[in-house]
Amino acid sequence: MTPIKYAWSELGGDPAQLARVSGVVREGALPARLPVREVARACVGVCALAGAELGARRAGPARVPGVRVDDGAVATAFSSERQLLVDGRAPVAFAPLSRFWRTADGWVRTHANYPHHRERLLRALDVPGDPDSVGAAMAERNARDVEDAVYAAGGLAVALRTPEEWAAHEQAAAVAGRPLVERGRLDGVRARALPPLRDGAPLLPAAGLRVLDLTRVLAGPVATRTLALLGADVLRLDAPHLPELPDQHTDTGFGKRSALLDLTADRRRFEELLAAADVVVTGYRPGALDRFGLSPEALAERRPGLVVAQVSAWGAYGPWGGRRGFDSLVQVATGIAAVEGSAEGPGALPVQALDHGTGYLLAAAVLRALTEQSYDGGSRVVRVALARTAAWLMEGAGAEVGGGEVFSGPERWLGEAGSPVGRLRYALSPVCFEGGPVDWTRPPGPWGADPAAWA
After folding, report:
1. What distance in Å separates the CA atoms of residue 223 and residue 209, rounded to the nearest whole number?
2. For residue 272, what pLDDT is reported?
């Protein structure tokens, strides 16, 4: 089964609609030992098809628009954080302590981009903040001991595992037993009537829909950025005490507004927003928001007909279900870094493909849930996990599509725009269908600069 057929079937889509998808293959895009290009192409393809399907449903009895997936656009978008320039300045992707480290028996990768994660890493190792001190401490310890100690301190470090070592892990077994996209129905409420779309271009399948964005780095914001492209009113909410990295926020902030909201002190305001929301997307570790009444069941009870979408690193199950995680760490744990490595040490995928791919899968799942709701109602929940996307990638993903043009660079798929944060160069969205949007209507603004209110 080809990757796009598999992904579309996991989303519950009609296989006949795959005939509406065409592609432009570009050799050299996303080069890797693993089939990164094929998985990336499939994730974007099903997202575009889900958008086209919803658009046709809302526009009336019309054929689903044709979808076009171009490897060049996909490769550029999957490296969007690297393509971004703010007034000509390129962001720094990883902090100095976010990297691979040699240990006494192998390798560890840490993630310390956020100040609080950096502090916890240093506390676990009991060292000052310079790389030399961290490296010396790592060299004296075994990789699994570092992983356990840093996790116990609330930090982020994962020991390098081979595919075979990961396959023997309890979390790998839990992940393998789950579908690529988990889809569930929470109740039997009547179908919510979606207003018909206005005549004229572009076709915006999510126009008029309100999305509460409670996500951070990187898959969740990619999903909500895509929903914003397709016309949704996306309002990102962050806790005032958890600042976002400015460039990261800019990269994923296209089409959205950004507000600060304390879920404890400003509970009434949140409930007012929820009462008018159509979709809630969460990207915190599983269970972290439940104490605020934000489990899918609790949300749907207060807002019947809601679509709740969740993304996590390791999945909401198994012994690692409650752990924090990032794309780079999932690559290390699941054997990807070992496969992509060399005799000199572990490697990495050419882009953060788990984040980006999972983000487009999550957006596709939301769009398909909205289409299904329009027929038979019900509040819905959809879930994806970076580790499950990694398992799909490691399985080989499916048949390779060969031939095509040569990928010569990202220039054709970059846009430029002014914004409140400066002049931007950015990756255009790869989600493309007949009559659909080609760019966002709103540039990103500063973190937390908008009111916590619907447009």
Report:
1. 15
2. 97
